[in-house]
Amino acid sequence: MMSKCKTDVCRLILRESFGEVAEKVAYLLLSKGACHLRQIASETTLHIDKVRKILLVLIQQNVVKFEKNKRGYTEYFVDIESLFWRQRIPRYIHCAKTLYGDAAELVVEDLVYHGQLMMSSVVNTVTDKLNEALEHAGHQKIGSRVVYDKFSLLAGTHFIQKCLNLMEASQDEEDLDERDLSHLFKVPPYNIKDGEKKRKRSTDESEPPAKKPKMSTDDETVSDDGVYWKINHRRFHQYFRDQLFIKAIHNTIDKRAADILQTMLRLTEVKSDDICFTTNPMSFTEIFQAIPRDLGITRNMCEQYLSLMTDDSSGVVSKVGESGGGMFVINIMKGLKTICKAHLESVVQERFGSKSLRIFRVLLLKQHLEQKQIEDLAMIPSKEAKELLYTMFAQNFVSVTEISKTPDHAPARTIFLFRVQLDQLARMLLENSYKALANAMRKRVAETKENRRLMEKQERVDAILASLEQSGADDAQKEEIQQTITPAERSQLQKVKHMINMLDQSELQLDETIFVLETFLYYNDQKLKFRS
After folding, report:
1. Residue-wise pLDDT tens digits, 314-330
2. Of the candidates 101, 100, 146, which has an alpha carbon nearest to the alpha carbon of residue 123?
3. Beta bridge partners of 400
4. All domains of the chain, ordered by start, with CATH?
5. Where does residue 181 rank: exposed (0-12), middle (13-18), buried (19+ CB within 10 A)?
6. Using CA atoms, how far apart are residues 65 and 276, in angstroms rounded to an integer?
7. What does the mean pLDDT of the chain come to?
8. Model confidence over 381-395: pLDDT tens digits?
């Protein structure tokens, strides 16, 4: 069951992305669960054709899924995670650009914008966009093979995948083993020249005519009819998770240690399962040979840094054997726990102060302590320690376990042990983060709506100035146009833009915190299931 705070965020995302009518339909599915078409039309008081069109768009965007119930009716339901992850679309696009360049950025952007597309359509659209930009800049045009190679690279590293067919979609992706899922990342071969029609494939003259392949006369770059592609959210999240580990090692040791860890993560990025608690073992020789030569890391230096990382308190890297110069693994669960603790400690310091943080860290380290033990270990006077401890207890940052020596549970004969329940505290802060994100989104929408007229006026002025610039108008005309916005309006515009930029930054930072907490809780839940 989804919390109210997360539901509010999803409703705001729906309204911003698809409009109020689509929000009405999707919110019904969020609140009531799976519904059939006529039930949706009846509950929302919308015409059934309009509901059908809305569902079509939401299915295309991977927000709504459908399945047949026991009676044979098709029921529709919202994929909550896919809907919430739309908040991270800018991060997905920036990630593709950082890793593989402008062509990959446009491929991911096109897939995100349309939800599902055939590869030929993506390759042609992106090639046209790049050639238009290159022609405008006075550079030579590129062929579609360049975009196809980037598309293949994204598929090979699992950042994009084929859409499951109806038979596969009826099963949960997580229940399919790796062998079954491998075909989702296979790209059709590129079998024609750039700008030409498809080549006729050579056939054996001895073959009967019925067995000869049909000759294509289309101008498409690849033959992928009926196969649609979409972005793979979980692979992007795995990359974001790995970046958290690299950043943590960079902060605790240095950049060279982070480079070595990045090499280790790259070696296992598509080999290990995305919910594994530790990666596959890697030998020292394998790690050293994979390190880029331009980093200037020698063999002896690599040994020293691996030794430092295995001794680091975060526990991200562990040594599990001696063969091949030493076998190493990356502890995903330990690393996530360390990063989650760092976020929680930051919240405690901001809310309660440095002395409360000292008590919090003592409890994280020792787990169960009495009040007198906390005072001694944190080296804080009794009265002050008691006040700080009970303030955190009142706000659910610290919990108490009662151990009674007698059946009557008399306070004089009861031991009170304080502890930090990491998973419960993470859930509480996750809810607070959802609430803060919803508030930031509402404030941004309200500011934009309130100053819409002024912002549209600024856009019109900018458009007129751009056209005058192209036509070669003199400075007097430009100055006259610029003066249509008064100094008071210009000052108001600066304030509004500053406010909206601040709210955008807040949303990005909140989403990063949400990602850390959600990832830790997801792995923690998987670990509990594995134990049971």
Report:
1. 788 888 888 767 888 88
2. 146
3. 418
4. 4-78 (1.10.10.10), 84-167+182-190+224-231 (1.10.10.10), 237-330 (1.10.10.10), 352-420 (1.10.10.10), 426-531 (no CATH)
5. middle
6. 27
7. 83
8. 889 999 999 999 999
